[in-house]
């Protein structure tokens, strides 16, 4: 007697379908398996409004592909799946969106793509190969907004509010925690900064840099009544002015001079940490190490202690052992005043040099390339790094800078979670253009 059997492949397939159902239900949507005549569709998802429970009649067809082993061409970040010709023809023949979900049920991993969006060119249809990115193509509860976008017609008038979920929003504004209470102003015969430094050199004085020449006067946070400032100004004309008259005034000229003085202080503060303003790039840039070796910074990010490269060499991709360029972490800093509070706006960037000092020949192309590649999390990580770096406390080896201190990055709690997967979505044509741009940039990088 021949006994009926169900093989392991069938069980794995059902486990994959069960995993999809579990995820879909967690989204608050409805899952309906295909009961009979399955010819390339294992089930369908109907979008449901989670708040009211109202059904939408917006349908997505689903094909499940499951395995307990490794995916094809699998790496830590990606894998491939090759569609059968008859399956692909069938999926593309209808007018209802179809997604393929590739899963590994024993580890509860699932990844998805929309067939119609992915195979939008004859070249891709001919190749029949789907390249999954494990991060961007993950199929989980957070994929709900993308499924709504996929299934709901643009002219339907339906609105699905996002799932209620609180989120902490980080800004790129760093609180200015302290600057001195007093600004000193005195008359001077100096008219240009070069005259100041020439006099300091002539008198063999190591003068400080936190001052501004303006309208026959010198302005500084330093007490101009003390030595050696009497060499540079008329000691009898020194005025001690409350900083509020300059920091919180409506006079644009006074406010501009105050910001100028803050910028000078910021540069002086950073120089002690081997970072300074780079005029040709209009940003604050990490210095090269003396040996041109890697420099890193250890800090606490949002949750964990982490390490970030601040300066380092990059080898040529065409000539082994040759350094193609050096990359310096940098940021554009702007002092801003909002709601009776001063902030430093931090916009992360990079500087590329050929020898640690001179700008690289392809600096602009390299900067454009890395800006295209970096996503929100990477930029946020840099903002947090610079926020921690600028607010670092005094140490046994490094005294507190006296004229400028920073607090924390401004954050606020958002009552509604923002799903980056949805609002950062790109159509495949855009992605192809991006891929081509990156190839061009990569070619430049390798020189």
* Domain tally: 2
The CA-CA distance between the termini, in Å, is: 71 Å
Spatial extent as radius of gyration = 30 Å
In terms of per-residue confidence, which ranges show pLDDT below 50 for 5 or more consecutive residues?
425-447
Q: Helix count?
A: 12
Report on the biggest sheet: 8 strands, antiparallel
The strand count comes to 19
- Assembly type of the chains comes to single chain
Shape: elongated
Helix/strand structural class: alpha+beta
The proportion of residues forming helix, as a percent range, comes to 25-40%
Beta percentage is: 25-35%
- Calculate the mean pLDDT score and round it: 86
What does this entry look like structurally?
- The structure is a single chain.
- The protein is α+β, with helices and mostly antiparallel strands and 447 residues long.
- It has two domains: 8-161, Trna Endonuclease, Chain: A, domain 1; 272-445, no CATH class.
- Helix content is 29%, strand content 32%.
- The protein is built from twelve helices and 19 strands.
- The protein has helices at 8-27, 85-93, 115-118, 122-127, 144-151, 193-202, 244-247, 252-271, 363-373, 376-390, 420-423, 428-445, and strands spanning 30-33, 43-48, 55-66, 78-82, 98-104, 109-114, 129-133, 164-178, 182-187, 211-214, 217-220, 239-242, 275-278, 283-286, 295-300, 305-315, 323-338, 341-353, 405-416.
- The longest helix has 20 residues, at 8-27.
- It is elongated and about 100 Å long.
- The N and C termini lie far apart (71 Å).
């Amino acid at each position: 007697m021949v006994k009926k059997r169900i093989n392991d492949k069938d069980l794995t397939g059902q486990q994959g379908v069960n995993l999809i159902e579990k995820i879909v239900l967690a989204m608050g949507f409805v899952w309906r398996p295909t009961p009979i005549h399955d010819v390339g569709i294992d089930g369908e998802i109907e979008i449901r409004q989670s708040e009211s429970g109202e059904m939408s009649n917006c349908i997505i067809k689903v094909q499940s592909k499951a395995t307990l082993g490794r995916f094809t061409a699998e790496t830590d970040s990606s894998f491939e799946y090759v569609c059968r010709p008859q399956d692909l023809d069938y999926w593309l023949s209808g007018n209802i969106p179809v997604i393929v979900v590739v899963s590994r049920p024993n580890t509860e991993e699932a990844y998805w793509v929309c067939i119609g969006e992915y195979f939008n060119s004859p070249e891709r249809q001919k190749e029949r190969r789907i390249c999954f990115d494990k991060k961007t193509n993950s199929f989980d509860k957070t994929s709900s907004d993308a499924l709504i976008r996929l299934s709901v017609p643009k002219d339907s008038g339906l609105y699905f509010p996002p799932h209620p979920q609180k989120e902490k929003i980080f800004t790129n504004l760093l609180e200015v925690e302290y600057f001195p209470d007093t600004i000193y102003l005195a008359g001077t015969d100096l008219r240009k900064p070069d005259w100041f430094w020439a006099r300091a050199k002539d008198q063999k004085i190591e003068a400080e840099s936190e001052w501004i020449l303006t309208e026959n006067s010198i302005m500084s946070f330093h007490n101009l009544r003390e030595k050696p400032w009497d060499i540079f100004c008329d000691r009898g004309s020194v005025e001690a002015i409350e900083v509020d008259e300059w920091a919180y005034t409506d006079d644009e000229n006074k406010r501009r001079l105050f910001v100028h003085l803050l910028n000078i202080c910021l540069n002086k503060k950073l120089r002690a940490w081997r970072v300074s303003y780079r005029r040709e790039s209009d940003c604050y840039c990490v210095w090269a190490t003396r040996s041109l070796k890697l420099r890193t910074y250890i800090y606490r990010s949002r949750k964990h202690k982490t390490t970030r490269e601040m300066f380092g060499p990059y080898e040529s991709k065409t000539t082994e052992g040759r350094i193609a360029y050096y990359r310096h972490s940098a940021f554009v800093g702007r002092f801003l005043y909002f709601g009776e509070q001063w902030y430093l706006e931090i916009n992360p960037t990079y500087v590329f040099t050929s020898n640690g000092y001179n700008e690289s020949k392809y600096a602009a192309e390299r900067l454009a390339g890395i800006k295209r590649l970096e996503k929100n999390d990477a930029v946020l990580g840099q903002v947090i790094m610079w926020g921690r770096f600028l607010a670092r406390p005094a140490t046994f080896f490094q005294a507190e800078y006296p004229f400028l201190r920073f607090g924390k990055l401004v954050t606020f709690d958002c009552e509604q979670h923002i799903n980056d997967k949805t609002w950062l979505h790109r159509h495949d044509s855009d992605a192809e253009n991006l891929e081509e741009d990156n190839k061009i940039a990569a070619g430049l990088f390798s020189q």
